[in-house]
């Protein structure tokens, strides 16, 4: 009798002190997306690679692929093809090819729109405080970060920058506390 009591007490103690994995799914849409994100040459030059990655990691997004690279003119023109007729296009191509970038794929629930929100508006002076551009940049042509703006853009840009073999498939135990 005395032994059973001890075991029961131990069990109760354990269940009170070990956090229980969240069982509900309130607020979750179940829409896990991948999005293409890049720390632009100004972010690398200013030593903000870590700060930018920290913000995406801290939010809870999961890194799926990453590389440090130089973008050549051909890739730059393809990546920014939608802006080919804009007055700033040549300046944009010159800028994005001017130094190394950190190209990444980030994954998570509604990652495309959510990371756009973390980035802030294109013009950093209009970007909300708390956003990457709002906190860390001033000029539109030095706005630190690129992020896909739609599902179609994410698919296209990921394919443009990454080979499927460059992705790491892994799981994180902490995901059950994020989604
Ligand atoms: P986004 O990066 O917020 O998606 P887009 O309109 O797609 O903004 O423009 C792509 C990039 O082109 C911007 O991030 C910025 O670096 C650059 N850009 C956009 N508008 C201008 C401009 O008026 N002058 C100079 N550069 C610009
Ligand atoms: Mg864009």
Query: Average pLDDT across residues?
Result: 89
Q: Assign the CATH topology.
A: Alpha-Beta Plaits
Computed Rg? 21 Å
Q: What spatial form do the alpha-carbon principal axes imply?
A: globular
**What fraction of residues sit in β-strands?**
15-25%
Described by strand count, sense and barrel closure, the largest sheet is: 4 strands, antiparallel
**Which cofactor or ligand species appear?**
inosine-5'-diphosphate, magnesium ion
Number of domains: 1
CATH superfamily: Nucleoside diphosphate kinase-like domain
Task: Explain this structure.
It is a single chain. The longest helix has 16 residues, at 2-17. A four-stranded antiparallel sheet has the order 2-3-1-4. The radius of gyration is 21 Å and the shape is globular. It has one domain (23-170): Alpha-Beta Plaits (2-Layer Sandwich). The chain is an alpha+beta fold. Mean pLDDT is 89; it is low at 1-20. 40% of the residues lie in helices and 16% in strands. Inosine-5'-diphosphate is lined by residues 83, 88, 91-92, 122, 140-141, 143, 146, 149.
In short:
The protein is built from 8 helices and 4 strands, in the order H-E-H-H-E-H-H-E-H-H-E-H. It is of the alpha+beta class. It has a 4-stranded antiparallel beta sheet.
């Amino acid at each position: 009798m005395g032994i059973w009591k001890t075991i029961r007490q131990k069990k109760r103690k354990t269940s009170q002190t070990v956090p229980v994995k969240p069982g509900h799914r309130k607020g979750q849409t179940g829409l896990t997306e991948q999005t293409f994100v890049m720390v632009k040459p100004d972010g690398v030059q200013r030593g903000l690679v870590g700060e930018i990655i920290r913000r995406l990691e801290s939010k809870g997004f999961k890194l799926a692929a990453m590389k440090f690279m130089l973008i050549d003119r051909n890739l730059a023109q393809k990546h920014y093809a939608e802006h080919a007729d804009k007055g700033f296009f040549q300046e944009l191509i010159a800028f994005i090819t001017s130094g190394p970038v950190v190209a990444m794929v980030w994954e998570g629930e509604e990652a495309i729109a959510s990371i756009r929100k973390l980035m802030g508006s294109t013009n950093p002076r209009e970007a909300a405080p708390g956003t990457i551009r709002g906190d860390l940049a001033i000029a539109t042509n030095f706005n630190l970060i690129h992020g896909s703006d739609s599902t179609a853009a994410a698919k296209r840009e990921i394919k443009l920058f990454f080979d499927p073999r460059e992705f790491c498939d892994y799981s994180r135990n902490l995901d059950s506390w994020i989604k």
